[in-house]
Predict the structure.
Amino acid sequence: MLSRLASLWRNLFRRERVERDLDEELRSYVELLAAEKVRDGMDTAEARRAALLEAGGVEQVKEQVRDARGGSLLDGLAQDLRYGARSLAHSPAFTAAAVVALALGIGATAAVFSVVDAVLLRPLAYADPERLVVTLHHGIDPVSPANFADWRRQAASFERMAAAEYWTPNLSGDAEPETVLALRLTADMFPLLGVRPLLGRALLPREETPGQDHVVVLGYGLWQRRFGGDPGVVGRSIALNGEPYTVVGVMPGGFEFPPFWATGAQMWAPLALGNRAANREASSLRVFARLKPGVGLGQARAEMTALTARLEGEYPGTNRDVVVRTLADAVTGDVRLALLVLLGAVAFVLLIACANVAHMLLARASARQRELALRATLGATRGRLVRQLLTESLLLAVAGGLAGVLLAWLGIRALVALGPATIPRLATVGLDGGVLAFVVAVSLVTGVGFGLVPALQASGRDVNDALKEGARGSTEGGGRHRLRSLLVASEFALALVLCAGAGLLIRSFVALRGLDPGLDPRNVLTMIVSVAGAREGVPGRRAAFFERLVEEVKALPGVRTASAINHLPLAGDIWGLPFHVEGRPISRPGEAPTATFRVVLPGYFETMGIPIRRGRDVGPDDRRDHPEVVVVNERLAERYWPGEDAIGKRLTLDDAGQNPVWLTVVGIVKDTVRSDWAAAPDAELYVPYLQGRGYLESSSTVYSYLTLVVKTSGDPIERAPAIRRLVTSMDSGAPVSAVQTMDAVVADATAASRFYLLVLAAFAAVAVLLAAVGVHGVMSYSVSQRTNEIGIRLALGARPADVRRMVVGQGLTLALAGAAAGLVGALGLTRLMAGLLYGVRSSDPATFLAVGAVLGAVALAASYVPARRATRIDPLRALRSE
Amino acid sequence: MPTTTLLQGTLDLIILRTLLPGERHGLGIARRIEQITKGTFVVKPGSLFPALHRMEEAGWLASSWGESENNRRARYYRLTRAGRRQLRTETDEWGRISLAIAAALESA
């Protein structure tokens, strides 16, 4: 063993000396031989020639000696690599096509796999995240405080149960005031998640009492940005909504609250429910829980079902459809399907790329038949030839893999930059070890898998046959041609599935974009202005502030009109309030009709381009001490006063039994989109801001902000700085946030669909391109192999058109056979993406027809080029070309 | 005179045997083999040198540069201790095989 190693060492590192020795030894052998012959009477020159002849090819002997020595395997490998690289460099078009195909396949797969890995596969960054669940109405809707208290007390499946509530306080102080996204949490939320603060402490149970709840834990990002990462911030007092809060802790970097909701919260304060604790109507809490060890999800669900059924009996209408989901499920939710569809699609792209490379290798192997046969007759063993061909395909795969990594890196950057905000954890996506390992594995499998078949085929043939066949330049052997045709047909099948998927997404997107939002988003600027804790924020001054703000904005240059609303459609919150229609029986609790509650300043409908169908807009006189009025949307009017004129009818938002305040309907407006772009409109009502009691009287900060909407004559975003300055000049403590155009809000609403569409369409385009290259390659090769036959046909009087038809016909047959198979596959597979579609069935015939036609046209074009070349064959040259 | 290809393995044995009296260079070994097999075996450089190098790698032979009888540089091979052991083993082996084959042929 040791001597083998020593010899390996010698051969590897003293190769030069060994080679020199061998050279000299053989030279000396020839000289001795010649000397012998001179002794026998030959003259010197002749003796030397005879000696050389007898030695029988010095180079060959050297080769045999090298083979016999240790280290020859490595020698051979280096030689294979050199030879492979040289032979690839000799056919740059083939090499480039193969490397590009592989790079596209590997790069796209690695990029999508990175996203899937980060978003779906990587566990959430909490202790035992698989035991975390969320318990919400319909799996997404918030829970009332009283329900939360009952569940927490009675459910035995959970180790802990905690709740969170949305909170957007104004943070003021030395720097410019800003609205911070924050959460109010029950104290056991942090222990439930199993995370500890970086500095200071988390929240304490006794801080859930009103009066003791003015403490806050900062997020790492906010701590760095606003407090310069100063550890001394713990214990310091900061102003939130104008009230002092003591910082008790700072969370570590990378901690974020479960990102299925309130993503990006930067601050956590105790949830002190006080007298809200017994409220079973107002639902504002998100409930999180940790399963006890050994308790399964099914068991917890069964218990919650029984528990909520009991509570529903006790308090009707309060405990319907309570769903327990794992936190991971809640986080990935709707995104899972889309990402899995993309992963499937990209796997298809990779398969197509591999098929492409495989049939290119096959074609190349056939074209090199004579070269290989020659090498075989010169003594190369079959193993040696297979190794040679495998080395070549591995070289290709490695080059493709390297280029693929580069593409993946670019692709990931593009996906992260373009991806919609609805994809959780997208910012954490990156090329990591796992993905690189994946790329290496894919490269190797591609290289070996798709190099092996052609290598075995090419080397396994009878040498004589090969030489003869090659010499005749006739049609290639049947088996290999069938395999290549099969590969190209499969490419078309896969490409058709991808195109069908992309086509369906395009139709969905067109349908989505065709939806009428009921408003005109052009030239509208929106921003949230909050006066919580500011000088103008006290209930007595708030209304006057907003009224004056809108008037002064209207007076700015470039502004056509302006108004304000509590929650902007699509971007803002949705408050559903129960109401009663005058003259109808009083509903039981929980069964009253509900409508989305909006408050608006005059001019909102004009600014947003929402047509008033009947009646009038909210006017400047609709204020306190004037008759209380309401504007409703068509949906509400039709549903509750069908066949009647809703104008003049009355409804109330109060408890109908207790001498309520009746609101008279003065206007009916067109239905608009609410929060979900594709959802059908629902009942909405608009109350004049100056008559909204909560907005005028309550000190609660939920009433302390409005969204300003401004219709401009030019680019709306250019007006933003002037409006900001105006707000600051009116109250320096009032922060402006969420500045965006209404166009951007609308675009965001369909951003996810657009994103999936773009990615899938890109994959489909790559697939079609690869398939086209495939059919072109096969037909070109077939034409070049059949030069002889085509020459004879032409010589015998076939017209060029006949030849063209024959070649194009073969290419088309191949493509259409594949496409037909793909059609069957697509019908099955697109059903899986039904959840991503809107307004189109997964088996939409128009889409499938169009996609089939496109692929047919591509196949036609791709076979036409070689077909034309075939007609230009000169019969005489073709026959003489041997 | 008809020449015969040496059986695989037999060449090693014969080369080892020719080196038993002392060191020789490549051509010397080839000539000596022709001589002792009475011209039955002619060893071409294409099989001689690979065999020599392989046996050197295996540690049965050692080589060094020296002067030939007519003052030319040549590479001389000699048996190592392991080479002598190998020669003994292979000779015994060969004896057994040839006896067995002779017996088989006689009995037929």
